[in-house]
């Protein structure tokens, strides 16, 4: 039988220290990944109404993928509700205002 330079207690102490270090590193990586995923999910949820409007517009227009811009026709100003671009623009403005709310609040105080 070969003799070991470590005793049974020292061997378990090394295993416990290794497990503690690996667990700490894993938690730090997990925390960073979850913070990034949370930020990306928050941004996706903020922009999802705009994406939904674009998808509904594409599906309702048939097979063509054209996006008529308001004001491109001479009589476009007299028509209301012809395109969802006004709603999309308002949602985009709301997205910017909510995203930069802390910056706007710091300007006021």
UniProtKB/TrEMBL annotation:
This is Uncharacterized protein. The chain crosses the membrane at residues 12-32, 44-65, 85-108. Keywords: Membrane, Transmembrane, Transmembrane helix. It comes from the Eukaryota.
């Amino acid at each position: 039988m070969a003799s070991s330079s470590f005793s049974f207690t020292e061997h378990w102490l090394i295993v416990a220290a290794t497990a503690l270090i690996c667990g700490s590193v894993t938690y730090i990586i997990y925390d960073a990944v979850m913070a990034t995923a949370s930020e990306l999910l928050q941004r996706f949820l903020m922009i999802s109404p705009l994406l939904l409007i674009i998808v509904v517009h594409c599906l309702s227009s048939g097979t063509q993928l054209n996006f008529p811009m308001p004001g491109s026709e001479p009589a476009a100003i007299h028509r209301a509700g012809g395109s969802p671009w006004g709603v999309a623009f308002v949602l985009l403005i709301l997205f910017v205002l909510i995203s930069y709310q802390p910056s706007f609040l710091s300007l006021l105080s």
